[in-house]
## 1
Amino acid sequence: MSLDPRLSQRIARVLLWAMTVLTVAVLVFIIFFILRKGLPAVNIDFLTKNPVDMGRGGGIFSTVIGTIVLTALAIVIATPLGVGTAIYLTEYTWENTLTRVIRFGAECLAGIPSIIFGLFGFILFVTKLGFGWSILSGGLTLAFMILPTIIRTSEEAIKSVPASYRQVSFSLGGTKWQTVTRVVLPSALPGIMTGIILSVGRSIGETAAVIFTAGSALRIPTSLFSSSRTMSVHFYILAREGISMSKAYGTAAILIIAILAVNIATYFLMNRFIRKYS
Amino acid sequence: MNRLEKRDRHVRLALLVIAFSAVSILAVITVFMFEQGTPIMFKYGVKNFLAGSDWYPSEKSFGLWPMIVGSIYVTSGAMVIGVPFGLACAIVLTEFSSKRVRGVIKPLIELLAGIPSVVYGFMGVVILVPFIRETFGGPGLSVLAASIILGIMILPTIISISVDSLQAIPPAYREGSIALGATKWQTVRMVLLPAARSGIIASIILGMGRAIGETMAVIMIAGNAISVPRSLLAPVRTLTSNIALEMGYAAGEHRQALFATGVILFIIIMILNTVANVTSSRRKKAKG
């Protein structure tokens, strides 16, 4: 093992870079492949017409609506819980056994696979509580799934607000809650938004947890209790049952575009936030 | 006590209740999974469930051995691919790249985490599976295909946590090593990787958890045959695919058996989470 250190340095460098470039290439390939194959199937009709004949014809309008409604519901439920938890952890307590339990709980929740969330949502919301396959069951399940992400990002955002902001507010006679709502939260907002947008991305892409709780009805949902199919579930069913490859590629292209938009939005928000406090 | 102070106390109480939401949800999920899944395990014997190799739900035969082995195989395969590539990316990002290059590569790798698992599965179906079928023979839907796709899917987990722990190393470590005349690669190998060891191990364990829990991508590319695979090219069914494939039509004891599958998966994940948590918190403590 007496290889010349400079030679081994050169070899290591080339090898590590090659592996990194390959990793990035895989990503770029996936995105270009899906967009190239999928975009020809995408037009105004594809986005504004409902699926016909199980998805063989027509567009994906009802699944776009299903995705938006389900994601919105999940965000509306998870955001107050997640941001509230983050405020409590950062502003109202100090590091102790209690906070360790809360953090451990959130970390464990983050590690639970989506299929377990699906099983749980199915047994609790769909059968026990009698919500059936519905927007409500799916939205609640998704909310539980994205909660850890919102807690973690909000906590980081709130923590990075400089202590001097709080001191000034207190010295002006502000109460704790006034300080939190009028000083801390507005300053932490871009960071909190980052977490919410990341969660939107996760909700859009989720399949396993949604298919067993929201079902796969192709109609446009009319109430919280109607079953609905999201784009990811639609894409999965189209591809797996071989219903229509061109429609599957088209749906995948829309999914990828949505995810790209989400990531670009987070990237810019995050950069602005970091610049502000460093 | 004035009105504002009173409100502050109510708010504090409300926030405390909210702060317990994540823990409570975890507790409720645990209770429901065990309540639904364990009775049938005890009814037919835990040993038969874990070690039985026949899964014929209609004949009340619930052996999960092939799926347990299947999950272990594809997860190990994913680690073989994901760990070296993940570490290579993490090392390049922290040690071998300029700030500008890092600014391009890092967001791209984060994007990798955003791609839905069904899209990964689909890429497996249209690109990887035909490639394996034509190059190596066999059905293409295989342990190998699932390992490669899962290996790619766990990269963001491994990379982001490893990068964090490499960046957390005090600069003095690097400077000291370079000052002693070591090359950059020697510094990485002999100083930085050992110093970041616990964080890297945690990242690998969390990556393992992701691989073992992944469902939709695996269903699409693993072939789902219920037998212990004899080669890398044989089809395989994992614990997660077992649940997702049959949940749609299962009823009665069959459904309970699927929940039992979920319980086993749940226990594995909780063990991995706890180990990762303990390793990374030990690191924080060591750094003071």
## 2
Amino acid sequence: MKPPHSSACSSYHACAVSRRHALKVGGLGLLGLNFPWLLKAEEIARAAKIKPRIKSLILLFQWGGPSHIDMFDMKPDAPEEIRGPHKPIASSADGIQVSEHLPKTAKIMDKVTLIRSMHHTMNNHNSAGYYALTGSAPATDDQRLRDSIDLYPTWGSVVDKFAPNSGEMPTFISYPYVIRDGSITPGQHASFLGKQHDPLFFTQNPNDANFALPELTLPAGISYERLHARRELQKIVDAQTRLMETSAETRGFDTYYEKALAMLGSEKLRQAFDLSKEPDVMRDAYGRTTYGQSCLLARRLVEQGAKFVTVYFDDSIGGQSTEDGGWDTHGFNNTKMYPIIEKRHLPITEQTLPTLINDLDSRGMLKDTLVVWMGEFGRTPKINGNASRDHWPQCYTTLLAGAGVKKGFVYGASDREGRYPAENMVRPDDLAATLYYLFGIDPASEVHDRNNRPLPIAKGKPVTGIFA
Amino acid sequence: MKACMIAALFACSAGLAGAEEAPVTFHNDVMAVLAKGGCSSGPCHGNASGKAGFKISLRGEDADFDYNALVRDMFGRRINTAEPEQSLLLLKATATVAHEGGKRFDPDSLEYEILKKWIAAGARKDADGIPTVTAIDVTPKSQVLLEPDFSAQLAVQATYSDGSVRDISRLAIYEPANLAMKASPAGLITAENPGETTVMVRYLNQHQPVHLAFVPARPDFKWANPKAHNYVDRHIDAKLRTLRMNPSDVAGDHQFLRRAYLDLLGVLPTVDEAKSFVLSNDRKKRSKLIDQLLERSEFAEHWAIKWADLLRLEEKALDRKGVELFHRWIRESIANNKPVDQFVREIITARGSTYQNPPANFYRAARTPITRAETVAQVFLGTRLACAQCHNHPFDKWTQDDYYDWAGLFARVDYKVLENRYRDGLDKHAFEGEQVVFTALKGEVKNPRIGKDASPRFLGRVEPIDEEQDRLEELAAWLTGPDNKLFARVQANRIWYHLMGRGIVDPIDDFRATNLPSHPELLDELTPDFVSSGYDLKHLIRVIMNSRAYQTSSLPNDTNAEDTINYSHSLVRRLDAEEVLDALSQVTGAPLKFDGYPEGFRAGQIPGVHAIAMRRSKITDADKFLQVFGKPERLLATEEERSCTTNLGQALQLMTGPALAELLSNKNGRLDKLLASGKSSGEMLDDLYWTALARPPTLTETAALSRHLEQATDKRAALEDITWSIVNSKEFVMRH
């Protein structure tokens, strides 16, 4: 028997898909309706009340934590130990200044919304990263927060559940790293929503000359025709029992074969992943870096219908090298933040971010695609003893560009020294609610964790002030 | 009309009290309305942070808090005693002013009337000593409804502390678990289609489940009177007959054999084993086979996986040596058929070095009193306590005090970390090296509700523990002792689940009064049978596997196709991760490669879960395969962490994945041996089919596949194709 559901929410407990339940379409539906299907209808009905404002989203996740004060929230009037060595420059948007190291980025500021009042209190990368990627605060600020199915699903998985693509194009794709800090950072997959909502994920480097996806590549010696022939033989074996006819689980598995076959045979998908189809000048414009080519790939994937594409800047928090790693520039081990970001992080951003946004714009894709650029936190307003900056979740900036949001707009503000939001504080919870809302998904939509607790997909409120 | 309803409602209590009309009380009436309207539910104002600035306690667990929220907060704007109809409470609930939660009830409803009356009377706090509800009684407790009469009227009586009894049918909440059933506010439960449901009936802090079965008429239904093999079938059949369903036929030898091997050993029968079983004329061959399989080493290995999932055998916390030692201890306990109660006592009381006394690894993995408390409750008592950490459990009797008092039993478990070679000192979950689990002399758990130390006591018991004794020894004795009926019931149900695919109580770690068993009498007989056998795992397995219910075909008949909970036919499910991979290795005759284990090691023999999080090195294709097919990380002590749903990634693994591709191309495997054997294509097919599916190919299969083989220029490629198509068939991937 199933546990009960509350009268206030008829879906309460309905998706108690325990291990064995999931096999039995219907759970309790002894002779009649199978309620997972019912539930889906109900969820979709709920979602349908909100008009989608975006079709796709590209998340550029800046692992390690970029410094807000040195990029999009400059404080030229603050004391030197706060404002840092970089100077602000005017941008294409009235009143918005950015770092002098981002002159091309400055020219796209008329296309973006900056939220300068992002705020949370998780000081460690894994807990903050999880919070940022899911909109759900972890119970503790744990430096090695364990990646278990107790935790919230990431945004893309929620979109995959509530607004999935039909056809061969996956809804949610993420690459080219598993981000980690000592242990794998939670918040990169579907967690308790179930593995069927995990992203199509890969670690192949789009900047490699022979970049290809093994999942979408047939093994050596297996042509598509041969795979088809095998599938035909398989169907003969499948026809010998009545399993397909009598077991919904079995039929369900077979539909995945159909989908896999469609993907493997999909010209669309193959094309999307074939970066060699891009002219050299375009590839150069994005930058011949893993990040640059990943962003180019993101545009190609969205062009073919992917709904949610996550590009991770790097797999490590980094910050101590100009060769690799993320934004975590503490100045440890005699490194210094400014020479490193001047040589690595800012130039890569400067090359790729405006290119992506301009490219999307010139193709008319910015009308229904939203680009979100963010880290898990900002960096300390006060420069530390190593001439660098440490973690600062209390206030930081997130950049959004494209569909659904205002252009040349700043939402919220930090205080004079960039320490705390001075107005319109936005938590990761609110950002999650905002993005779901933009997709037409009710942020109050309920999912059930493994303890069967009814939980809203986002606990915050949509930041309607940024809506175009 | 509303006046009539009120009058009718209060007639009972009025009659008892001797007055015309009992006054509306806050506790017994207003709170009930807030619950019935859904106002105090988790998604609404009962949420931990309230909704739209209005917060009341979750499901009305704190009446004083709710009173203040209604009457005092917001400068009393929610209540207007001068003009009751203008109270924000009523304006919101009727959606007269904008209400995010929509309209909860109409102005001419009983709910409205109760609130209005209470407000008009001054919205007063109840007088001290007003009667409180002590019990509710729902009639009927269970009912079978025959088509076309698909509606059941429930009636609820509440008993109060002063002994008075009142009909509260119109105030109770009715929640059918099966969403296809509808409940009216007055307790009329209707169904459009046949099916079963529990209806949870709630009133204030009381709840009672009701079981309803809506049975199709099936005028020509005839009970087939199938033969019962043992008491299991008598219980199963009794319910099936009531539901007008016949069980499916007994499965054929091929199906039974494959099922028995997979369920007991996690591997497929060999060609010889399969053929000799099928050809045998021994009328007792099935029960003999069960006996034989129970004595094989793979049995202990396979059933060790089930405990390894629950006891969290993963390398990051236990390290590889710890995982291997603990796994060996579990395996040997099963092989020696150690009584399950003793096995559990040894775990609960385990202390000392995690290398010298392997079960001490249980505490090495569960490192806080809270984790230990939740794990022991869930694994050994089938009780999910997690809700009660933050608030009283909404569907169970557990309070926050129960939770922390139980956790207090584990407060003194402590560790001496003799060595930690794990390089990342920041990771508090990872250890490499020996540890000693010991009991500290002091240490308590703080109960945040009272801001004081909890007073350790057993779950569901009032009296405190005997502080003279060792807490864990005392706990182990109580847990597995005669005073605690739940332990054996939970363990018997778990064994049933692993063989039958669904618990009699399901989910199997969610025992509570409000989660009804599908076959209570069956569980009532299995449990004492298990206890009197000396908690003998093998005995209970024999009872279950010798039943007709276990041996029934997975093919449904006309009467039972929709059934998923009454064991009318065998449930079809995907093989577990380890089972699929080992079966692939067995069919291809090619060994698997796992990081850190010798070639030829089976997936089902791997003791733990790799601490992959700490390595950057690539895991092997076989390890990856297990992940995709849902082998759990073993971070949570529950069967639900192991996923046996199907997904796209699994289809891709089997279609084009590297693990199977490598097995198929192995040069010393079955394929090359078959090609070199000089066998005809028919004989080769025969060998492959018996190995993979424990049956010969059908004529259709022989014709099509032989043709594929004979027409091919590259015979090996053709044989690969054929093997691929067999192992990609549903018959192979599913346990049926």
